[in-house]
Amino acid sequence: MSSDFSWEHSTFVVTLTVDDDHIFPFSQIRHVLSNRRGLARIDGAVHGIALNSNYFMLLDKPMLRLEGSCHCGAVRFSVTSRTPQPYMQCYCSICRKTAGGGGYAINIMGDAASLKVRGKANISVYRARNTARGRRLSSARRYFCKKCGSALFITDPRWPQWVYPHASAIDTPLPQPAERVHIMLGAKASWVRLPDGPDEVQFLEYPDQSIEDWHRTRGLLLE
Ligand SMILES: [Zn+2]
Ligand SMILES: [Zn+2]
């Protein structure tokens, strides 16, 4: 197939021929993409992401709607997200114990009103007690599949407009984040080696920007 698309914040229009897997090299336009963090739009919606510095993937559907599922397939969900960059890694004990085989969990953010769930009967909810705060019950609700244990998404009545899907449960290809933010490092497990470099930002506790602000200030908020 062949597609016309225009790059974000640009009048630059290029026609590309893509293969059946919707993946193609973008060496001829790499300088444009690298400035735009690898997102491409058609009619305002994001339809493509850079997989790495050599290849680009065209998405069948706009990226705004993300599809997710547990491993056994008993639960499927979808949600719209204007903030799909999986950039924030949380090393707190709850995240790494419940959803963090690598020592951390990554949550993105979606619009709670748009959340659609199939297989609700297969979901359990966990409310953690925070050992660092006198075992106070956390207000966050952690949803997981009770058949296979996959972490699905989190809600919190303090922010009822948002739902926080685990990036690990999302099936829609997500972009490689422009930068990685490592948070709650005061609770990091000793065996986890932190990556080093200019795009690896570290916080002992909470980050200095909300998920929405982080996307907005980098031109990555999807409208
Ligand atoms: Zn499952
Ligand atoms: Zn955490």
Q: Any key phrases for this structure?
A:
single chain, 223 residues, 2 domains, binds zinc ion
What is the C-level CATH assignment of the largest domain?
Answer: Mainly Beta
Mean pLDDT across every amino acid position: 82
Instruction: Tell me which ligands are bound.
Output: zinc ion
* SS class: mainly beta
Helix content: under 10%
CATH architecture label of the largest domain: Beta Complex
Count of runs of 4 or more consecutive helical residues:
3
- Under CATH, the topology of the largest domain can be stated as Metal Binding Protein, Guanine Nucleotide Exchange Factor, Chain A
Order of helices and strands: EEEHEEEEEEHEEEEEEEEEEEH
Domain unit count: 2
Major sheet strand order: 2-1-4-5-6-3
> What assembly state would you assign to the polypeptide chains in this entry?
single chain
Overall description:
The structure is a single chain. The protein is mainly β. It has two domains: 2-58, no CATH class; 65-217, Metal Binding Protein, Guanine Nucleotide Exchange Factor, Chain A. The protein has three helices and 20 strands. A hairpin with a 5-residue loop joins strand 14 and strand 15. Bound molecules: zinc ion (2 copies).
SSE topology:
Blueprint: E1 2-7, E2 13-17, E3 23-25, H1 30-35, E4 39-42, E5 45-50, E6 55-58, E7 65-69, E8 76-80, E9 88-90, H2 93-99, E10 105-106, E11 110-111, E12 116-118, E13 123-126, E14 129-130, E15 136-137, E16 141-145, E17 151-155, E18 162-165, E19 180-183, E20 200-202, H3 211-217
Parallel strand pairs: 9-19, 19-20
Antiparallel strand pairs: 1-2, 1-4, 3-6, 4-5, 5-6, 7-8, 8-12, 9-10, 11-18, 13-16, 14-15, 16-17, 17-18
Bound molecules: zinc ion (ZN) (2 copies).
